[in-house]
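Backbone geometry:
***
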Amino acid sequence: MTGPKFRLDRRLVDLGLVESRAKAQGLLLAGKIQVNGRVQTKAGLLVSDTDQLTVVGPRLPFVSRGGLKLQAALTRFGIRPKGWNVVDVGASTGGFTDCWLQSGASKVYAVDVGYGQLAWKLRNDPRVIVRERLNARWLTLEQLDRSDALDGASIDASFIGATLLLGPLTSMISGAGAVIVLVKPQFEAGPEHLSKHGVVRDPEVHRQVLERFLQSAQNLGYAVLGLMPSPIRGPEGNIEFLAYLSLKGTSQDIMIDAVVKEAWQEEWE
């Protein structure tokens, strides 16, 4: 007797092998999914509950690559968010949210202007408060149904300058709270500095973007405590950076040229 059949992409999610159908489809196209030992690429392939499904290669520790970026920043800057309540601005699939939780945060407010992108496992995690269709340019604690200040925040936004999202956080984060910002030069530099594929290819543009961003952050009252290249590039290979800000303390003497050189070292070699 033939058992029930399931779409391959749905079955991968149901079994907990991947976090979303979108991720399953990406892995299928990349040839990373095997059914009974044979590579399959079609998301609509029907499989049964007796078929052996395998994800080939190392699995990400987070629901998306973004978690690796935040993890690198927390490690480099010595931030230990155990017990923290934080807001993740631009949560999207939830890579940063997942990293906050796995690093010890007690609660994460996942904020995004979009809808339906957050990974299912995070959407159903009681420690995650989902706030979708919310423009973080005017974010308030009231929108999070919260009165107490937060312990930290992260920003990973696209198609908008990160500085525009820093302002509202000044009234939401405790004095000693940590703010980690993924600075994306492709959205900070003008279109004249982008290749036809939207990539910043000039280290001098990176330096100028970082200089403007850090100055703007200080003008808003933040202390700049750290800056590093992201260990993972953005879309189309764009180099990105991670900044560590706080509303308490004194800005460090950040050697922007050295950070840019570190980011480009792989290119120059």
Notes: Residues 122 and 128 are 6 Å apart (CA to CA). The domain at 66-268 is CATH 3.40.50.150 (Rossmann fold). The mean pLDDT is 91. The first strand starts at residue 5 and ends at 7.
